[in-house]
Amino acid sequence: MSRPRASNPTRKAGEHLTMADLAELAGVSAITVSRALRDSPLVNPETRQRIKELAERQGYQFNVSARNLRLRRSMTVAVVVEMKPTVERQMSGPYPLDLLGGISQELTSAGYSVLLTSLQGGALPSVQAADGVILLGQGAHEDAMHQVRRWGRPMVVWGAVSRHESQIVVGSDNQRGGKLAAERFLALGRRRPVFLGDDAHGEFAERLLGFRQALGAHGIEPLTPSVANFTVSAGAQAVHALLDQHPQFDALFAASDLLAIGAIRALIERGRRVPEDVSVIGYDDTPLGATYLPPLTSIHQNFVDAGVLLARKVLALIEGEPAASEILPTHLVARVT
Amino acid sequence: MSRPRASNPTRKAGEHLTMADLAELAGVSAITVSRALRDSPLVNPETRQRIKELAERQGYQFNVSARNLRLRRSMTVAVVVEMKPTVERQMSGPYPLDLLGGISQELTSAGYSVLLTSLQGGALPSVQAADGVILLGQGAHEDAMHQVRRWGRPMVVWGAVSRHESQIVVGSDNQRGGKLAAERFLALGRRRPVFLGDDAHGEFAERLLGFRQALGAHGIEPLTPSVANFTVSAGAQAVHALLDQHPQFDALFAASDLLAIGAIRALIERGRRVPEDVSVIGYDDTPLGATYLPPLTSIHQNFVDAGVLLARKVLALIEGEPAASEILPTHLVARVT
DNA sequence: TTGAAAGCGCTAACAA
DNA sequence: TTGTTAGCGCTTTCAA
After folding, report:
1. What are the residue boundaries of the HTH lacI-type domain, all occurrences included (chains A, B) (predicted)?
2. CB pairs A-B closer than 8 Å
């Protein structure tokens, strides 16, 4: 039984309208409607205009599923965030939002939509069906990466570039970040530096590497106490422990602003002055650090740019074009500490 | 021409396998495969098991578009974030991530996927085709809400509940947040309070309302200087200006932790002690505030819970069930300020 | 408990 | 420049 649609040109909101219906209303075929709505040059400009206006007037809603089925693509990119539901997230701070902003901006303007997902409880079919995947935060363990790779989709990872020659990774220049921190300490005449961070984490390991190399050229070897976590309290704890055993340090480079702030707190509690007795540098240049008292010197990375880059690379992979890992620049923002 | 697939039971990764193929391999019909994979009770348990194992072994990938086309739903919820690409975001702080976490968690376990999007440059068809929409941050202007409403999809908004009787809104109890702040000031014996925030913003207006009412019961009327923005520097600026004109206040309630921190900075720069001379309360209970020196007293809201609730309500609407606006509790976290 | 038929709405390929 | 045909892969009738 055919619907009485075409006989009723003014349709109510919520009515369901297809290209075939529009075709009938316009006195053309469905494929012409399809072409017109996609701005195909194959269709007469006037016809095209007429059809587009008709569609607009009739409140036509394009059916994405039908197109995707036909084209065998989902026009979708899954963004996998390592986001624990607990308070202490793996991805500390607000930066994932900037990353997401950049990604979303770029993918949207390319006509792709962003499927946000974590890896909790196995991925949905719709996620696995994405045309490409962006993995945010490989974390300390790289299970996430292996799991996602199994989906067999084009994939780009945000993280430590050096670790994965086989993967396309976008990351910022962590090694240079470490070097910049070292150079500042050297310029300030500091000779007993500490690195605070967990080098099981690829990005942190790179920061330590750059730090250590730059110091090594001056015959200096930093202390590297272990830290349990990436939180303020973990930073404070680690520094308290450190002060008990090696009270002699005069500079501290933390792998995140959170850790740095914890460290400063512990230092002050133990009567050390910042920056007079101990110079401190953080990482990520978060508002948290920038507004802290004393304002925290930190290594800046541009997450929005990073997001855009990640998006461009998945898109390239999806289109079958080549893409390579890329390292974004970092710079040091000098503040009071 | 039929594909030679069924004659080759071990298939390579990347090969394309349909239910019909599985059916042939299993010696059943496609519909039986469909039922088996959906755990339909209509299919013999043994057959079901056999088919599921076969699918697993063959690396079968379910085609979401086909199902969606057939079912006329997208199994997708669009989350619209008012997220400017600029540094100063509308949604301040890291909280949207928690909200997203809660939303994602709940929708995913219901089999829906999360389409993340901003409103930049008009929405994609796939976004408009979502089965439901969650709007995060109605902002000061409510254009976003009106625009999204035009899509004609079930919609739930995160924001100020009182403003929109016609919409389903989830928000936290901003009015009570304001009341709690007022009560703390009263208990501390403060008599000259200030509210710092822009009441064009619905949520802020509610906070001011609660604050003002509780104070009014004691015959006290707060000062309400205008603030240009939701940033640290805007907070500092506003307080500097305030000190010039009305230097006599002894308590300050800010509509966000960021503003509060800016305020504290300005106070200290002008020789006021916090909390001795001026008691300060922030909003959102961010790590930023909690780790500030002095640690900031703040009103806490649970964003993860809020996200879960938002998700449940769109799901209800999508299923045609009733749903109502809801207000989440807030509480005060007392710290040094 | 299983299957056959039909069709969701769109677009590539080919034809006119 | 426009149209016809066919089919993407799935699931809801309805029938056996």
Report:
1. 17-71
2. 155
Residue B48, CA atoms < 13 Å, CB-side half-sphere: 11
Q: List, for residues B302-318, the tens digit of each pLDDT value.
A: 988 999 999 999 999 99
> Does the CA dihedral A250-A254-A257-A263 come out positive or negative?
negative
On the question of pLDDT at B53 being above 90, the answer is yes
> What tens digit of pLDDT does each residue of B117-173 get?
888 767 788 888 899 999 987 655 567 788 888 888 999 998 887 666 788 999 999
Q: Are B260 and B234 within 8 A, CB to CB? A: no
List Cα–Cα distances, B185 to B182, B188, B252, B261, B299, in angstroms: 5, 5, 9, 18, 13
For residue B104, give the nearest of A123, A214, A308, A96 by alpha carbon: A123
Closest CA to A287 of B53, B194, B262: B262
What is the pLDDT at residue A141? 54
Name residues of chain A where pLDDT drops below 70.
1-15, 83-95, 121, 138-142, 162-164
Could you give the C-alpha distances from A76 to A306, A335, B43, B85, B310, in angstroms and in order?
A: 19, 42, 33, 21, 23
- Tell the residue number behind the tokens 């920061």, with chain if given: A207
Residue with tokens 């509210």: B195
Q: A34 Cβ partners below 8 Å, 6+ apart?
A: A19
| Cβ A78 vs Cβ A115: under 8 Å | yes
* CB within 8 Å of A126: residues ≥ 6 apart: A74, A76, A115, B64, B75, B76, B113
User: Which residues on adjacent β-strands are paired with residue B195?
Assistant: B253
Rounded distance in angstroms from the CA atom of residue B18 to the C1' atom of nucleotide C10: 19
Q: Which amino acid is at A97?
A: L
Nearest to B232 by CA among B94, B92, B332: B92
Token pair for A308: 């855009």
Q: How far apart are CA A322 and CA B67, in angstroms?
A: 32
pLDDT at B177 over 60: yes
Direct distance between the N- and C-terminal alpha carbons of chain A, in angstroms, rounded to an integer:
77
Note whether A83 and A92 are within 8 A (CB): no
Beta strands in A173-287 (DSSP E): 193-196, 251-254, 279-283
pLDDT digits (tens, 9 = 90+) for B14-46: 468 999 999 999 999 999 999 999 999 999 999
> Judged by CB atoms within 8 Å, which residues 224-243 of A form the interface with B?
232
The Cα–Cα gap between B84 and B86 comes to 5
Around Cβ A37, how many Cβ atoms within 10 Å?
18
Is the entire prediction scored with pTM above 0.85? Answer: yes
pLDDT over 90 for what percent of chain B? 63
Strand C nucleotides where any atom sits below 7 Å of a protein CB = 1-5, 7-13
Query: Residue A116's beta-bridge partner residues?
Result: A79, B114
Nearest-nucleotide field for B40 (CA, C1')? C1
Q: The dihedral of CA A200, A205, A208, A212: what is its sign?
A: positive
- Residue closest to D2, CA→C1'? A32
Q: How far is CA B87 from the centre of its chain?
A: 19
Q: For chain B, how long is the longest CA-to-CA vector?
A: 88
Q: How far is CA A92 from CA A115, A141, B260, in A?
A: 21, 16, 22
